[in-house]
UniProtKB/TrEMBL annotation:
Organism expressing this protein natively: Shinella kummerowiae
Domain EAL: 24-277
Name assigned to this protein: EAL domain-containing protein
């Protein structure tokens, strides 16, 4: 496919570019029907309290198992959806599924907040907040039941529409989180100014929290500041017991990662959370239900 031409340089041939744009186009035209037929679906990953291992919330993660192309990377799907002007319907679909899983769990006496990722571009859409609030009302989601995750770069845009959408959603009882904090620019002042409910520490910080003293200081610093601001801190991508222990000793209250549980489709998630027996191979899941 791509030919490496010297160091740090990838050159694409004309057929490569054609193949790429064909794939992109194919994805774009298929998104709508893929949602309707259930090819596009949602997995949910538990977020656990590090104090006692209890699951306190879930993150919804879109999944597209394409019949010919296999599992599509969510980022690729989101870009295709943006370009096909299908990002609003796609996101509303994910929010619908998130509300559904909340109701199902609620009926079983489990009240969990569900988080949904929101592409920055959506906030520039005038009708975004109305559309989300409509779904939330239809499902009678209580205040704080839904949280929207935004990456920091989304917050670089301070246009009136973006701020109005956020304010309107907040008034409607919807919480916000900064996602992937520590990956890019990571402006602590900006973090304070946003007054979001939650901050999620990027996996790149967690990857180094057992090996780099500097990373330990950064994680401790962000953790303290977030706590002072009344924000929850969630460590993302926790894969090992060593990382778990390090985060616990740094006073980080919540975590998410393969060490606790992978993203699961509702068919696996519900028995996992509600305590029905799991298939033997799933018994390695460590989180306390
Ligand atoms: P994210 O929001 O930061 O989500 C966390 C990602 O880390 C997920 O990848 C999750 O499966 C993965 N992950 C969780 N624990 C571990 C771990 O211990 N180790 C490793 N290596 N990975 C872990 P996923 O599902 O592939 O999603 C990638 C990104 O795509 C998400 O990153 C989010 O930015 C975006 N995304 C996913 N679903 C949606 C969606 O419905 N809408 C939008 N706009 N973006 C989405
Ligand atoms: Mg996220
Ligand atoms: Mg993240
Ligand atoms: Mg990410």
């Amino acid at each position: 496919v791509a030919k490496a031409a010297g160091r740090n340089c990838i050159r694409f041939t004309t057929p490569d570019i054609m193949a790429m744009s064909h794939r992109k186009q194919a994805l774009q035209v298929e998104i709508r029907s893929a949602i309707e037929t259930g090819q596009i679906d949602v997995a949910f990953q538990p977020i656990v309290s590090l104090a006692d291992g209890r699951v306190t919330s879930l993150e919804a993660l879109v999944r597209w198992e394409h019949p010919d192309l296999g599992l599509i990377d969510p980022h690729e799907l989101v870009v295709a959806a943006e370009q096909a002007s299908e990002i609003l319907p796609l996101t509303l679909f994910v929010i619908e599924r998130a509300c559904n899983i909340r109701s199902t769990l609620g009926a079983c006496g489990r009240d969990l907040q569900v988080a949904v990722n929101v592409s920055p571009r959506l906030l520039t859409l005038e009708r975004f907040s109305d559309a989300v609030i409509d779904v939330v009302h239809r499902h009678a989601v209580q205040r704080g039941g839904l949280l929207l995750e935004l990456t920091e770069d989304a917050m670089m845009d301070e246009s009136e529409t973006v701020l109005r959408n956020i304010e309107h959603l907040r008034d409607g009882g919807i919480d916000f989180a900064v996602d992937d904090f520590g990956r890019g620019y990571s402006n602590l002042g900006r973090l304070a100014g946003l007054e979001f409910r939650r901050v999620k520490l990027d996996k790149s910080l967690i990857d180094n929290v057992t090996s780099s003293a500097r990373t330990v200081d950064i994680v401790r610093g962000i953790g303290r500041m977030a706590a002072d601001l009344g924000m929850d801190v969630v460590a993302e991508g926790v894969e090992t017991a060593e990382q778990f222990a390090a985060l616990q000793s740094l006073g980080i209250p919540f975590a998410q990662g393969y060490h606790f549980a992978r993203p699961m489709k509702p068919l696996l998630l519900l028995p996992f959370l509600l305590g029905k027996p799991l298939p033997v191979e799933k018994r390695t899941l460590r989180a306390v239900r």
